[in-house]
Specification:
3 domains, five-stranded antiparallel sheet
Length: about 160
């Protein structure tokens, strides 16, 4: 048995040398890959983790900004319902002795048809202005044809 140990030892030493060379070759490959990875991931802001960290913080900041804008938009939308959005204007000549359609009926309504209609009657002796409240597209008082036409124009 002692005669067969010599070739086994030589074979094992050869295997160790081959494995040692393979480990050295792999270490060199890993070192080259590491340097290539560092060159790829290094930017103006530092390495890849620094760049990703700054981008992640920017994404969080944008999310907070979207939340703030959503809150502001909600307030604007709730206020916009009450703002005048619908306008109707009818110009007319109520008297035979005046010309130029200088009289008018102006309807200003919100999204729900609430608001008012303003009428101006121009004559040679003066101008008179009247305002009538409108709720849901209707008035409590009587409306002239021109005022009714202005409201229809506003709600169309």
């Amino acid at each position: 048995m002692s005669g067969s140990i010599g070739p086994i030892v030589v074979a094992l030493v050869g295997a160790v040398v081959v494995l040692a060379l393979a480990v050295l070759w792999l270490l060199r490959q890993v070192s080259g890959l590491r340097s290539r990875l560092l060159s790829l991931t290094r930017g103006e802001d530092g390495d890849l983790s620094d760049v990703l960290g700054s981008h992640l913080e920017r994404v969080y900041e944008l999310g907070r900004e979207v939340d703030r804008l959503g809150t502001r938009t909600g307030r604007l939308e709730s206020g916009a319902i009450r703002a005048f959005q619908r306008v109707g204007l009818v110009r007319f000549n109520p008297f035979e002795d005046t010309g130029g359609n200088q009289s008018f009926a102006l309807a200003l309504l919100d999204a729900e048809g609430n608001g008012w209609v303003l009428s101006s009657l121009h004559a040679r002796t003066g101008t008179r202005v009247y305002a009538k409240a409108i709720r849901g597209g209707r008035s409590d008082g009587a409306l002239s044809e021109e005022e009714t036409a202005a409201i229809k124009q506003a709600t169309a």
